[in-house]
Write a structure and sequence with these properties.
The structure is a single chain. The protein is an alpha+beta fold. It is 36% helix and 12% strand. Helix 1 runs antiparallel to helix 2 and helix 6 runs parallel beside helix 8. The chain starts with 6 loop residues before the first helix and ends with a helix.
Length: 288
């Protein structure tokens, strides 16, 4: 497939093979397609970026007419029938070595060859068949903080021969594996399974009949179930609801503190990084 063609032609080729694609900025990999708007011109959250990915040839041609150098984003999950492991090379001293950690896991447990991309930063994208009975999100499960990222439902990858603004390109690792997608091994699915929900999220207080506590429990459940792209916003919403309940004396300050600790656990369960959780909770407290 990789030859002397325009990026639009490559995007169309992927779409014909069943991949839902969309244009991404070669400077930062961010989507170039924005959100829909309502009648008043307000943006509708959750309608832009990867949500716009399509196999429609007319739409793809229009996008690449607007942005001829756009990188090719591919929606992972149900839309394209694949999901990806993304082991990164360290970007600076002290960063985890995703490639080395993945190689160690592969050597220990075994994993057959599959369609693989080489990324400009020295990493890889290993693509596996999507299984509806074993859905994968972007949660890294027990491989969190190893430098191995996961791209499942709600996530996306950049496809070859997309080229960054610095001229470095994404490449096919092995042409013989092109569009040959292996089944992910059972051990990998087990590592990516979400951890048990923390006890503080399951039950904040034994007195579940109290209305304010029941409301807090509902907030915790919503935060824990939040998907990527909405997690920070939902965490802030939940924190502000707790702040309101303390301010209006529906719950005592000590119960509010316990709720904030449980919110942090819930956000971790949803996959939000520690630093974002701390920053979001501090921001909510500052508005109290």
């Amino acid at each position: 497939m990789i030859g002397n063609k325009s990026l639009c032609e490559y995007a169309l080729d992927y779409a014909r093979r069943g991949w839902a694609v969309f244009p991404c900025n070669p400077h930062n990999k961010f989507p170039l397609v924005g959100c829909n708007t309502d009648a008043a011109g307000n943006k509708l959250a959750g309608t832009g970026g990867v949500k716009k990915a399509t196999t429609d040839a007319q739409q793809i041609e229009q996008w690449w007419e607007w942005w001829p150098a756009a990188m090719i984003g591919v929606a992972c999950g149900v839309a394209s029938g694949v999901w990806a492991i993304d082991p990164d090379a360290p970007k600076k001293p002290g960063d985890p070595n995703g490639k080395a950690n993945w190689a160690e896991l592969r050597q220990k447990h075994g994993c057959e060859h599959t369609h693989t991309h080489l990324t400009p930063g020295g990493g890889e994208h290993l693509l596996f068949k999507w299984r509806p009975d074993r859905p994968i999100t972007n949660s890294e499960g027990r491989i969190k903080r190893t430098g191995i990222n996961v791209r499942g439902e709600g996530g996306y990858i950049i496809a070859p021969p997309s080229r960054r603004a610095d001229g470095k390109a994404y490449e096919i690792a092995e042409p013989l594996d092109f569009f040959r997608f292996a089944d992910a091994p059972d051990w990998l699915y087990e590592l990516l399974a979400p951890p048990p929900r923390p006890a503080s999220v399951q039950r904040l207080n034994t007195n579940q009949d109290a209305s304010p506590i029941a409301r807090i429990q509902g907030i915790l459940n919503t935060v824990a179930a939040a998907g990527e792209g909405d997690r920070n916003k939902i965490l802030f919403w939940g924190a502000m609801r707790v702040v309101d309940m303390v301010t209006e004396r529906e719950v005592p300050p000590a119960e509010g503190d316990r709720a904030f600790a449980a919110l942090a656990d819930a956000a971790l369960h949803a996959g939000l990084p520690d630093r974002e959780i701390i920053r979001t909770l501090q921001s909510a407290r500052a508005r109290a």
